[in-house]
Design a protein that fits this description.
With about 230 residues, the protein is an alpha/beta fold. Helix content is about 50%, strand content about 10%.
Length: about 230
Amino acid sequence: MPKHIGIAACSAEGAALCYRTICNEGSAILGRHMHPEVSMHTHPLGEYMKHIDAGNQEGVAALMLSSAEKLFNIGADFLICPDNTIHEAMPIVAKRSPLPWLHIAEEVGAEANQRGYVKLGITGTRYLMEGPVYPRALEKFDIMYAIPSTEERAEINRIIFDDLVNMVFTDESRSYFSGVIDRLKDAGCDAVVLGCTEIPLLVNDSVSPLPTLDSTRLLARAALRKATGSREEM
């Protein structure tokens, strides 16, 4: 039997995309209309933001662990979190969690390494672009990275929190991302990480000047492989 996937969610739209990907793509492995059992728990994004804005990773970890306990109690076998930003608390979470986790940035790094990319542009929330999540993960694969300018980081962050998490997707925002990615290309990047789980709802390879690494779908596909036994246990 496939393993039971637990999703510890944070923002709704990215979590929904991750969930849909697992369900929609499960049939390619398990047969028509089939996918692994999936359960999700979500604390309000606003509760997370109180701790994120204060730089309180212990508070972020407490919310993630609360979700982990609930998912463990209803039978999940392992956990994923379709939110890049709160992975900054993962070193705390991993030590106390009742279940193992897949790490979104490590899955992205593994995919980038497999595709032969050597320098990635990182897009996401300001906290993610300026934080340690991707530097730590990419170091394991000897992959370099670059981030947008200060002004660009501020505008990307605004687009995410004002628009994308509220399911607002505009041509203006899409064009802005395209310009940022073009400048990352000029800085020597050979691919770009869509490192907020809502960004793939706005940007894809057809509008990006660089090949994209869709963190949401890469995590979902990694969870499918783990749940169905088509990858080694981590």
